[in-house]
From TrEMBL:
It comes from Lasiosphaeris hirsuta. The lineage of its organism: Eukaryota, Fungi, Dikarya, Ascomycota, Pezizomycotina. Belongs to the mitochondrial pyruvate carrier (MPC) (TC 2.A.105) family. Its main location: mitochondrion. This is Mitochondrial pyruvate carrier. The chain crosses the membrane at residues 124-145.
């Protein structure tokens, strides 16, 4: 038997220990099938009590941990301004764009897109704005790099022509 499979078989009891199962049960106790259905837990289908009315979208958004009352909502909304500014720079000539600034926006967009999917609560609105910020940055950086390469090619061609003129 391969050593790796022995390692995995030996580690199974560790992952079945009380440490892992208790942390999972504390995280989301409502998802357990064997959860009590007595009336003290609240109203619902199995309690015999009336069903609670579903919350409206506005109420859920207002009371959400990433809702309208929090920075988790307003920071991405304001960050869309950076994306719109980057999109408006598509009309500018590449020689007027800053490589360092656009590289920083690209790195910010890529890094924070990943981070938004790791943190709790997950902020998909912030992840979306950072993804588009990184995308706009990649486009701008590629425009700048292509412009710089074309300028180098033009100067190399001009140098070659000048050498031919001097030799003739």
């Amino acid at each position: 038997m391969a050593p790796a499979s022995n390692l995995f078989r030996a580690s199974r009891p560790a992952f079945r220990s009380q440490f892992f199962t208790s942390s999972l049960s504390r995280r989301n106790p409502a998802s357990k099938r064997w959860q009590s259905t007595d009336g003290a837990a609240g109203t619902g289908a199995n309690t015999g009590g009336p069903k609670a009315a579903p919350e409206s979208w506005a109420s859920r958004m207002w009371n959400s941990p990433i809702g309208v009352k929090t920075v988790h909502f307003w920071a991405p909304v304001m960050k869309w301004g950076l994306v719109l500014a980057g999109i408006s720079d598509f009309a500018r000539p590449a020689e007027n764009l800053s490589l360092t600034q656009n590289a920083a926006l690209t790195a910010t967009g890529i890094i924070w897109t990943r981070w938004c999917l790791i943190i709790k609560p997950k902020n998909y609105l912030l992840a979306a704005v950072n993804f588009f910020l990184g995308l706009v940055g990649v486009i701008q950086v590629s425009r700048i790099v292509m412009y710089n390469q074309s300028q180098k090619a033009l100067t190399a061609k001009a140098d070659a022509e000048a050498k031919e003129v001097v030799q003739a």
